[in-house]
Amino acid sequence: MSLLELDHISTGYGHFQALFDVSLRIEEGETHAIIGANGAGKSTLLRTICGLIRTEPDKVRFDGQPIGQLPPHKRVGLGIAYVPEGRWVFPSLTVHENLLVGGHSRRKGIWTIDKVYELFPLLARLRNRQALGLSGGEQQALAIGRGLMANPRLLLLDEVSLGLAPVVVEKIYEAMPAIIEAGTTVLLVEQDVGQAMKFADRVSCMLEGRLVLEGKPGEISQDQIFAAYFGV
Amino acid sequence: MVWVNDIIQGILLGGLYALFAAGLALVFGVMRLVNLAHGDFSIMAAYIALVIVGSLSINPFYTLILVMIVMGIFGYAIQRGLFNFAMDAGPMQAILATFGVAIIVQNLLLEGFTANSKGLDAGRIENAFIRISDQVVIGWFPLITIIVAVAVLLGLQVFLSRTRMGRAFRATADNQRAAQLMGIDNRHLYGMAMALALAMVAIGGVFIGIRTTFSPSAGPLRLIFAYEAVIIGGLGSLWGTLVGGIVLGIAQVLGDHIQQGWGMLAGHLVFLALLAFRPQGLFAKQVQ
Predict the structure, then answer these.
(1) Which of A13, A43, A73, A129 should one mutate to test binding to chain B, selecting the residue with the greatest count of B CBs within 10 A?
(2) What is the pTM of this model?
(3) Which ipTM value was assigned to this complex?
(4) What does the alpha-carbon distance between residue A228 and residue A231 come to, in Å, rounded to a whole number?
(5) Which of A34, A176, B19, B191 has the greatest number of CB atoms lying within 10 Å of its CB?
(6) Across the interface, do A91 and B288 touch by the CB < 8 Å criterion?
(7) Are residues A105 and B179, on separate chains, in Cβ contact within 8 Å?
(8) What is the spatial distance between Cα A45 and Cα A23, in angstroms, rounded to a whole number?
């Protein structure tokens, strides 16, 4: 049984359809990257998994359980944490408080606030600062740390590199090995193909709301990715 | 010295307004709901106290805990049973729902208790006072009111900054969707916010019921005072709410001093002046 199963999902926002018949399986412990251009439906896919978009119950299965109808806060309790595109840190809370709120679900696991500070030492230095004043990179680290505080079995990372300088992106991705080693299953969405390929066990490419390519990073060629990414 | 006395009386009156305003500000802050029934809920609390006093013949002070619990439960129920759904439909629908509830509460109270003014009799404490000088006199009851107001605001601050639930309140105020992604059940949280707000307004309702008389139609005016106190203090600032209440209280007492009956006008004028020159309020929180 896969940890996460998406079964022929078609969904969108109002009259705008963003996903067409998307099926995907994520195995426990794997790191899976979804790449694709702007507007390909990557974020919509993650939102369907975390519950910001609901589907019929059976369309999304987590650990065998149908969860398509569950609201986000219940999915967090089951072990799905979503680190949103645009970070969504709580601006009036301090860094420390943001992390504490991340642990609101009281799920037990290896991630504690001290472990998160160890993973992102820069957060430890900023612990009493309001999140409002943080730089983009600091906010991204905080958003990931906050997600880890929920001790997820499945961590959804949405556009980690968006709007950040490459050197900052490198710094944040330095945390990835530790997260993967902890046994967390990671599903990350990236426009930055290079970053995605570096850590992923498997890569899927989306184009205009459809999954068009899936494979192991070593086994798919640059040309295949190019074709799937741009639809040529 | 007469002026000193006026200002002191204004400060004490401000404590009462702060008790109303804090609940209004909390509800708006956490869920962006303008609760137009807030004033009527305070009247409702006073009538609940009246019923308890009538049936148990105890001092209204002792009803406080019971009234708070009843109002808290009522707040949670009406939030989960009605306002949450109205908020799903949109902010305007939510305001209209609170407006509808306000009218229902007023009319039920009218039906049950007639339009006659009622009062809560707290006994000797109502008239006891401390004489500072010939012209400065501080009533024990207004003094207790402001002490309770400060204690309530302090308690609220500790709750919001130190507890898990309090942090969840603030996170939801910042970004409701992100809060849900942290495992916070916003519908339950909204219920708790309304419960807390109505428990606070219950204190205000009972206190003002002891201070003056009340009738089923008195709610809207209280809502306006609470609203003015919140705006003067600045949205999102707890202690601003107290200062807003005090500014309003001083304006009203001074206005009445200049000419009997001008108090209310003076309060409104100060509010309007503030809206014109410092619309963010005196202590607006520096976020966004």
Answers:
(1) A73
(2) 0.92
(3) 0.92
(4) 5
(5) B19
(6) yes
(7) no
(8) 10
